[in-house]
Structures are given as structure tokens and as C-alpha cells.
Write a structure and sequence with these properties.
Structural class: alpha+beta
Number of strands: 23
Protein name: RNA methylase, NOL1/NOP2/sun family
CATH superfamily of the largest domain: Vaccinia Virus protein VP39
CATH topology of the largest domain: Rossmann fold
Largest sheet: 10 strands, mixed
Strand content: 25-35%
Shape: globular
CATH architecture of the largest domain: 3-Layer(aba) Sandwich
GO molecular function: RNA binding; RNA methyltransferase activity
InterPro entries: Methyltr_RsmF_N (IPR031341), MeTrfase_RsmB-F_NOP2_cat (IPR049560), MeTrfase_RsmB-F_NOP2_dom (IPR001678), Nol1_Nop2_Fmu_2 (IPR027391), RCMT (IPR023267), RsmF_methylt_CI (IPR031340), SAM-dependent_MTases_sf (IPR029063)
Radius of gyration: 23 Å
Pfam families: Methyltr_RsmB-F, Methyltr_RsmF_N, Methyltranf_PUA, RsmF_methylt_CI
Distance between the termini: 32 Å
Organism: Desulfotomaculum nigrificans (strain DSM 14880 / VKM B-2319 / CO-1-SRB)
Bound molecules: S-adenosylmethionine
Number of domains: 3
Length: 448
Amino acid sequence: MTQLPVQFIQRMRETMTEDEFTSFMASYQERPRQGLRLNPLKIDRAEFVARMPFSLTPVPWCDTGFYYSEADRPGKHPYHAAGLYYIQEPSAMAVVEVLQPEAGDKVLDLCAAPGGKATHIAGCLGHTGLLVANEINAKRARALSENLERWGARHILVTNEQPEKLAERFAGFFDKIVVDAPCSGEGMFRKLPEACTDWSEAKVAQCAVIQKDILPLAGRMLKPGGLMVYSTCTFSRAENEEQIENFLGNHPEFTLEPVPKASFFQPGDLPDTVRLWPHKISGEGHFIARLRKSGEPIKEKINQPREKPLPREVRRLLESFSQDVLGFVPQGRYVLFGDQLYIMPDALPDLNRLKIVRAGWHLGTVKKDRFEPSHALAMALPAGRWQRSISLDPDSQEVYRYLKGESLPVQSGEQGWTVVTVDGYPLGWGKLVRGQLKNHYPKGLRWL
Ligand SMILES: C[S@@+](CC[C@H](N)C(=O)[O-])C[C@H]1O[C@@H](n2cnc3c(N)ncnc32)[C@H](O)[C@@H]1O
């Protein structure tokens, strides 16, 4: 059983009835349930259920979410490398279900790494609108960027910024914002025993200070009429209801709204907020509040940087590669940074002087006499939109050898760039050269 901190137990005992406390403590005798969320950018629900070799049961509050069994190892399956799902604690899936992003929205995920909520949002947006996924910690921001790349998201901007810096640039910009705040992690004690050793009442107080600073900055970035969801995976009132009470006290332009799907959860002790308790649902501990900013949405002008047309030679190299290998030329707002070619979402503002980790859909590198495709190009290709591909069986040795970075012998096929797939879902690139598939799976992603 999890070794809970004594002070934590004391606080929980003081804030709950005896029966409630008994059943709360009993939940620590049980194993946490594991979850994964399918990727609607790549696969629909019926096909997902038919294809996955795992024992799946639906998560009641999330149409794309499933519990998997302890015997399953979804993180070690090639379908994971193909971005067909994201492994996520089931309660955490509730946050974006409460935000309800819709096609065309501009959404900010302010504290986004490693990307659970961000991938969920990108799935809801479905290659429309814009997701700005920000992470203050540089290393975690890289992991976030990798996860969004594997997810095949195109309408994205991954930044590595302080919330203050973003708030200067994006005032009144977003339709929807999620603040999945850094917190003391009490709700994760059962799942991550190290959260217990990291915990102290001092950490609760430290996190509360950060949350108090972040919330108004997030609020500033919301459009009038916009929606903001605040969530934590902790139980302390200081990091949950008290944050919301304090924020509302200082920001009369915000009001709490009822949480969609609230009937799956328990009320928080502030009306319209919800708590997810491990002894009440199949999931870990969370708090969620949904806040509306008053006012009518303004029809905003997007100050896009002036576009330069692609140099003729760059266009020729892109077209020749795309026609040969894909059979179509990806279209959109092309942007060339040095020799790196991207397609940018229309809603993107000026990125000058921001720490950008990833912007838009990275297509590849323009060399002197050729175009080299990026991993992101393969991962976000529309289903089946390629001419040259090699499909590997998920149960074969070859697929694991490919993911480890090995070259593979091949019988036939046209020489040159080839999309490598598992069952028709892209994993990355290979290059056919004289009976060998040269491996272009990125070095940093290779399986050990
Ligand atoms: C709860 S985690 C986010 C989890 C993420 N939303 C997901 O679903 O995968 C909180 C994040 O906030 C970041 N963070 C820490 N201090 C911060 C600060 N002062 N401002 C913004 N983010 C901060 C942490 O690095 C951490 O990645």
C-alpha cells in the first residue's frame, strides 16, 4: 500500500466525515486504473476498438477514453509509436471534456507538458483553429513537442515561455484556455508513489503562490465571452476552491459555469466546481472549475506577418518530392525558416522573440538539389495519402527492428523515400536503396 504522508492523512481526516474518510483511505488498497485515449486525427472509434490488441473498457466521461488491463503494455506497442493513442490517467481525461474545444477555436494550454490535455485538445480541433501548447520547463517542452508530433497535430504552436511573456503577446487572443496548474499532486499518490515523498505542506503553499500568479495571466489572454478551465490533480482546498474564490474576488468579469458531464463527478465545495475522488470513481484525484469571461466575443483582426511566396526552386523541389512519394502536394501557408519548410495555421500571430519549440506542420528540409521530408510530415499525413509505402505487421520482428533504427531487407519497390507504416498507420520514413530499407526513424525516438 502507498505510504501516505502523516500530515496529509491528518488533513484529510479533518476535512471529511468518518465514513467518507474510511472509504477514501480504503481506495489506497486498490491499484490505480490505467487509461488511454484514441487519436481521432488518425482512427475512428469503431476501427480502434476492432484493431487494438488490448482489453479495453470505456471511460464513462470521455468518448475517446478507455481503461486497459494490467496485462496490457500499450506503451510498448508499435501502434503507440504510430500515435494511435495517448496513455493518460482516466480522471485527467475529464479536463478537456469540460473545456469542450470545437473546430476553429483558438485554444491555449498554458501548462502543457507532457501533453495529455494538449493532444486531447488537438484531437477535438481536428486540423482547424490553433492550439498553443506552452511549457515553462525546456526539457518538458521538448517532450511535449514530440508527443504532439507523434499525435500528428498540424495546427499547433509549442512554446517554452513564462506565462507573463505569453500574456504580453496574446492579450484577449484565445477562445478557450486550460490552466492545468502545477500542483502538490496529492491526487496522484496512489499512481506515483514518488509524489508522496515529494510532498509537504510547504509544497502546497508554494504551488498555491504559483497558481495565484498564473490564473490572472491566463485570464488576460482570454477573449471576452471566452472560456477558461482550471484544473489540478490535488485535494488541498488552498490549491483548488480557494484559488478560484480569490481569482473571482479580483476579477468580477469572470463567473463560474456548471461543468458539463458533472453528474459523473462529485461537487466541489464551491458551487459549480467538481472533484474527482478515487473512492467515488475509477480514476485518481482531480479538481476542475469552468470559468466564463463576460462580454461579447470581438471579431478580431489577426496581424499575420506578411507572407513571402516560396522561392521558385523551393516550390519545385517540394512539388517534385510530393508528387513522386505522396501523390499530392500539401497545401497551406508555407513558411521557410532558413532551410526548414513549414505550413502554418492561419490563426498564428507574430512569433518574433518568443521561444518556439514547434510551429505548424514541419514538412522538411530544403537542400540544394532535393527536399528531405521531416518525421512530422509522415506523422500528420492524411490517411492513405501516399504513393510509396511499406506496411509492417504489428506482430512482426521487422516493425520492432524498424523502431530500433535498423535497416531492413526488402524484396521490391521503387528506389527512394518511402512512408513506413504499421498496418497502414505511418511510423516514419525509410529510403529504399538496392534491396535495403535505410532507416530514417529519428535517432532520439528509437526504441532500445
Ligand atoms: C500538471 S502539469 C501539466 C500536465 C499537462 N497539462 C498534461 O496534461 O500532460 C503542470 C505543468 O506546469 C509547469 N509549470 C511549473 N511551474 C510553472 C509556472 N510557474 N508557470 C507555468 N507552468 C509551470 C510544470 O513544468 C508542469 O509541466
